Amino acid sequence: MPAHQLAPDIPANAVLSAEQSHLAQSRAALQAMREHAQSLSADAAGDWVSQQVLQSLLDQRVAALADHPDTPLFFGRLDREGGDDLPGTIYVGRRHVHDGNSRALVIDWRAPVSRAFYQASPTEPLGVVRRRRFGYHGGALTAFEDEHLDQGAELGPSKILTEEIERPRTGPMRDIVATIQPDQDEIVRSGLGHTVCVQGAPGTGKTAVGLHRAAYLLFTHRDRLARSGVMIVGPNRAFLSYISSVLPALGEVKVDQTTVADLLGASDHPEDPRVAALKGDARMAEVLERALWLHIAKPEEGLVYTRGAHRFRVADHEVREIVASLRGTTRYGPGRVAMAQRLAHQVLVRMEQRGDSPDDRVQDAVARSKPVKALVDAVWPKLTPAQVLFRLLSDSEFLARACHKSAVTAEEQAALLWAKPYRGWKSARWSAADAALLDELADLIERTPSLGHLVVDEAQDLSEMQLRALGRRCRNGSATVLGDLAQGTTPWSTTSWEAVLTHLGQDSGSVTELTLGFRVPREVLDYAARLLPSVAPGLAPPRSLRPGTGSLSVRQDAPLADTVRDLLTRDGSIGLIVPDARVGEISAELSGLPHAVLTPDSTGEEQRLLVVPATLAKGLEYDHVVVVEPADIVAAELRGLARLYVVLTRAVSSLTVLHAKPLPAQLG
Ligand SMILES: Nc1ncnc2c1ncn2[C@@H]1O[C@H](COP(=O)(O)OP(=O)(O)OP(=O)(O)O)[C@@H](O)[C@H]1O
Q: Is 226 left (phi over 0), alpha (psi -120 to 50) or beta?
């Protein structure tokens, strides 16, 4: 008998009914935990503010203990050899549940003991004798599947895993907590101190793994991360909305999910992609630093401070010494404060020499006095990032001085200058690339606070300057960097993860790879992979877990509406991925069919049929995908072939390619 055995799906089965009663017992215990949490009062807290804080914590606790009838409370069971002080049998689920005697009925999937559920194998059983996976229908436990790990025999494919992967996709992304694979689990459970970069072909679960790692870290380092924070950074709001339910479903509601654009300020003034690429180059960091510090003037005059009938002087050469000693040892903003304090200190020394005994308050008053302020403003002027960047992009002589000794050539400097300068920094319109430059300047002026952990998705698309901006936000923490070199569609897309880690300031991070695809059927993936030698020559062709025979259809001159009508008779979502320029026209063509158009800010989730502009499809997936006119998708952008690779790899069940023009030669 094979070690892997699927138990018959019979409700009367004694094993099944025993497991069902464990589920009922666990649900009742969860309800008791919730009722207990609801009965706790915040009145015990001393003052009103503490009461509000405690009440909000209690409310969060009650919300976290909610029982969602459709979400399995546990999905696995381990029967262990024992020999330690942990229970011999444990149930693995989304959260801990215990009974009135503190006996664990369900153990959180993130607890160390649950690791064996994901990692144990016949060759390395990790003390597990039997692993049981549960199948659910709605909220009801309807099946189980056993793997005997103590018999040395190889395991067959898991039917429950296969069914989970094959389940039609509807609505937002769901968690994969019941079926995380061993290589994914390694990444999910890597330590908080470690930055991990994951390269993976489309559908290998990078996004899922990143989100589960965030949930794992929050569970394992709750207090530390509650203080410092965790943030998810994705490519656009439609993508964020698609992934937004995963962390709350895992009980994690306090994670910021944002886009680079929103994080750096919504600057989206259009710009020549070549200029944007230049502004995204890390060489700009040095130029900006120089530009900022060029604003410090050489002190030509000393300070005269009058108190009563007395005048206290600080000589010009002393002022120069103060400035020289501060330069390069502080950020620009605190440097101004420090200069004022040092000047005040010199005045105090003079006062003491005269026989006064001034205290700290006098020093603060001198530092805030008019003559000190005037001198600091003249020598070390107060600046905003926008003022500095405005000057840099509009004043060729200043730009040349800032680029002195940098590797930015004269030709590049000419490209950086605005063709039509704005009247002033307040009226300047900033591009997305400018936003990263402004952020760099902001950090040179005042330190950007660091979070505890950052998850960066679709990281291959970020410029070096954007990576630096994100790196600042995890400089005292760590990151999970996710992406695929073959899906880089920006003019500055990276070709090396090591370089990405360097610009992020996380050189010691490790690069790992996920190689098995869970989304795209093999037939479709093989078709899309024909583009790989052109878009990312170094990458091995992706592999798919799902054969998907008959999932690909390429049709010339076929009517779009007929294709769509045909797909509407099947289960699951339909993504009609079209060249951006044709969204309106194609939506009009479908006027008889209920559909929505995906925009950067909406998922159009309420409709099964969605028209998706090609540039928004990244990271998303649909059961059935129709890609309209590949030649136009390729022609629309500098890295159009990579865009085509992205859109061809969005399908879970079927891909239909419709074309009137010849297909790109690489697909032939
Ligand atoms: N272990 C797993 N069990 C079940 N489903 C999985 C597993 N891993 C990934 N998936 C599913 O595969 C699909 C693709 O996952 P995901 O979007 O995370 O991949 P990705 O590598 O980020 O893809 P892309 O590069 O295209 O953005 C999702 O539906 C996800 O839920």
A: alpha
What would the two tokens of residue 574 be? 């339909």
CA of 410 to the centre of ligand 1 (A): 46
Look up the pTM and report it: 0.91
**Does the annotation place 495 within a ligand binding site?**
no
* Cα–Cα distance for residue pair 12/18, rounded to 1 Å: 10
Backbone phi and psi for residue 258, each to the nearest 5 degrees, phi listed first: -145, 175
- Determine whether the shortest distance from the Cβ of 199 to ligand 1 is under 6 A: no
Q: How many CB atoms lie within 10 A of CB 69?
A: 9
| ipTM, interface predicted TM-score of the complex | 0.99
Q: pLDDT, tens digit, for every residue of 305-361?
A: 998 888 999 999 999 999 999 998 999 999 999 999 999 999 999 999 988 888 888
As beta bridge partners, residue 512 has 198
Q: Is 164 in the pocket of ligand 1 (CB under 6 A)?
A: yes
Ligand 1: atom nearest CA of 175 is 31
Instruction: Identify which of 90, 161, 197 has the alpha carbon closest to the alpha carbon of residue 508.
Output: 197
For the chain, helix (H) and strand (E) counts, in that order, are 28, 23
| Domains of the chain listed by start with CATH number | 4-166 (no CATH), 183-266+453-517 (3.40.50.300), 273-288+384-445 (no CATH), 303-379 (no CATH), 522-667 (3.40.50.300)
> Positive or negative, the Cα torsion across 404, 407, 409, 414?
negative
What is the number of alpha carbons within 13 Å of residue 499 lying toward its C-beta?
Answer: 15
**Beta strands at 310-314 and 303-307: parallel, antiparallel or unpaired:** antiparallel
Query: What distance in Å separates the CA atoms of residue 306 and residue 14, rounded to the nearest whole number?
Result: 94
